[in-house]
Amino acid sequence: MHPNPNRWATPRGAFGLVVFVLCLVGLLLVYLAGDDTNPPRGKERVMNGGPAARSVTVAVDRVVDGDTAKVFYRGESVYVRYIGIDTPESVDPGSPVECFGEQATEANAGLIEGEDVRLVFGPEQRDRFGRLLAYVYVSDLMVNAELLRLGYAETLTIPPNDARSEQFDRLEGQARKADLGRWRPAGGCS
Question: Can you list the domains of the chain with their CATH numbers?
Answer without folding.
Answer: 44-183 (2.40.50.90)
